[in-house]
Write a structure and sequence with these properties.
Number of strands: 8
Number of helices: 8
Strand content: 15-25%
Strand order of the largest sheet: 3-2-1-4-5-6
Order of helices and strands: EHEHEHEHEHHEEHEH
Oligomer: single chain
Shape: globular
Distance between the termini: 24 Å
Length: 238
């Protein structure tokens, strides 16, 4: 098992890519803490995962709550070996129709929240730990109406490299996964029925070389690689 006796903290671990990664990490022997905003889905995820899983309710835009979550994980399982800064929100920000508050909410969750998740974890990280951030192809695609989300994920892309340099003296690796269109609950506001979801996925798939959207467990396997010793000489990579 590639994560035997390792401790991992996953934000947004109650659904989508975060939950799929938590499931894979547990299967690979890790002690896992999942962080999420919604207590109901958080508790359901923890029950479904079983094993050594700690569910912690916190919003990554609340730095105090995030610090408490990191400390609680270390207290329960010991110092951290893996952090997956995964929590994020999507949202439209069309030019001429977007309020400062709406724009800021996307930035605060997706990029500011990721930075302060890592800062909260820093005192509890073992030397040689692995940090993985979740980006998006929106950072480079130029999709109309998604400027705030693209800016946030572009920030993740740049921040990954800066953090990799900053933490290299401690042997802490910092890398990024960059999912394309992936079937997760993040699409729920845009597709409120199975038929609407299928139509949305078909539309997205037309721009994907493989002709289909990805699945959360496929992204989770990439996170596992970066988190494990298989990637012991990989840092600052996307």
């Amino acid at each position: 098992m590639r994560l035997a006796h390792k401790t991992a903290l996953i934000t947004g671990g109650n659904s989508g890519i975060g939950l799929a990664t938590a499931r894979l990490f547990v299967a690979e022997g890790a002690r896992v803490a999942i962080v999420g905003r919604d207590k109901k889905t958080l508790d359901a995820a923890a029950e479904a995962l079983g094993g050594e899983v700690l569910a912690l309710q916190a919003d990554v835009t609340d730095t105090d709550a995030t610090e408490r979550a990191a400390a609680a994980t270390a207290e329960r399982f010991g110092k951290l070996d893996v952090v997956f800064a995964n929590a994020g929100v999507a949202g439209l920000s069309p030019l001429g129709k977007t309020s400062p508050a709406a724009f800021d909410a996307i930035i605060r969750t997706n990029v500011t929240g990721a930075f302060f998740t890592i800062q909260a974890a820093l005192p509890h990280l073992n030397d040689g730990a692995s940090i993985v951030l979740n980006g998006s192809v929106h950072a480079v695609l130029g999709v109309p109406g998604y400027s705030a989300y693209a800016a946030a994920k572009g920030g993740i892309r740049s921040m990954t490299r800066s953090l990799a340099s900053e933490l290299a003296p401690r042997g802490i690796r910092v890398n990024q996964v960059t999912p394309g269109g992936t079937r997760t609950p993040i699409w729920s506001p845009y597709a409120t029925s199975d038929d609407a979801r299928d139509a949305l996925e078909a539309r997205i798939a037309r721009s994907i070389p493989l002709g289909r959207v990805g699945h959360a467990d496929e992204v989770a396997k990439a996170v596992l690689y970066l988190a494990s010793d298989d990637a012991s000489n990989v840092t600052g990579a996307e």
